[in-house]
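Why predict the complex rather than its parts? Because the way molecules touch one another can change local conformation, and only a joint prediction can capture that. The input here totals 428 residues.
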Amino acid sequence: MGKSSKDKRDAYYRLAKEQNWRARSAFKLIQIDEQFDLFEHENPEKVTRVVDLCAAPGSWSQVLSRVLIKGESFGRRAWVEKKAREEAALAGANSDATDNGADGDADMKELKPRKNVKIVSIDLQPMAPLEGITTLKADITHPSTIPLLLRALDPEAYDSTTSSSPSTIRQPHPVDLVISDGAPDVTGLHDLDIYIQSQLLYAALNLALGVLRPGGKFVAKIFRGRDVDLIYAQLRTVFEKVSVAKPRSSRASSLEAFVVCEGFIPPAIHDGSMGIDALKNPLFGGAAAAHNVSTDGNVSIEVMDVDSEVKPGANLTTTKTVSSTGPHKENQTRMLHAESDSSSKLEPLSQKPVTERFAVENRWIPPFIACGDLSSWDSDASYALPPDHVSLDPVQPPTAPPYRRALELRKEKGGAYGKTKLGALGRA
Ligand SMILES: C[S@@+](CC[C@H](N)C(=O)[O-])C[C@H]1O[C@@H](n2cnc3c(N)ncnc32)[C@H](O)[C@@H]1O
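Output of the joint prediction:
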């Protein structure tokens, strides 16, 4: 598809170029903020430290930079200001419309840079620099990324503690928000793509658990596959509120959505100490996860006891932890189905036994929220362009795309898009 044709079919692709965003994904974050006020526009001091995972080419980082560092108005703040202007225009239609309109405009243009901003962005791919943002080229699923992130967030604390005991590093300044737009190179095999995507999510969550402040927020891309409700339930164990957001700029036909998790509740096992120890023992597994190892050093798995009976009313079942050599350990777990216990409240699962937190039966469906102003562009529609439309180049082409060698080879043979110097002969 040519640039011009893509401009027509994808309004957000065109707008991103016109508004100087490195990728159309910028609109997804802005529309999520519009709904959830991620950046707390009325209490700006509450969101100043942010980690952007899987950040290349960097449009989400651009949003962070423009909102937090430059103090520009996007998302919820822009929406509130727009509403205020509309109301002012309505109210002042007869009398002092001009004055009110001028106030509204002033509000919109007022820059409100935040103090003590720290933004760390990580991606597998190198990312063109952005002023004021620390960028790291690293794999978020790899344990070696953990110290890189901790050092980038708090260099002094990290350097002064690692020499004595790396495992006792406490995060002196935890972060307020972790966002992750991680996506693997899609293979087209849905189950595989969804699986890899979920591993990215677990890796992002693992990092978030280690660096978020209590009450902090976590936003991550998710593919709504068959067993996604299990992930939702797991997220519910460490966040007060979990929602699924579908921004208007994300195509309706795509499985993509975003989990928006608010009110981080540090899990008890972390014991308040954040840092390497907490990060190296991921709660939910994921690619970077260590296997569960019992005290005798054997890898253990938890299985449902086939003999166990669920006693009516009691809602209890027995599970055994089976170690390859060690003795069996019995645990009692309680199902959390709301309908099976009318007195049960939706309370954080982190306060429940581990066996209960991970039970497949504990699935939970979060609210699904379509976000983005209804007047905004429809990502599934094609729009007619004016005849004099000039198609712009992308703001930031990938610095080192994995397909670079293929492009070079193609160029050597005569050019992109199959147009070779040899014409039909060359293509044969
Ligand atoms: C959809 S893009 C992110 C777009 C970005 N949010 C923006 O606004 O420009 C997905 C990114 O995930 C990155 N990614 C995939 N797997 C990763 C991993 N294991 N570690 C770090 N980044 C990864 C890819 O390199 C890619 O840049």
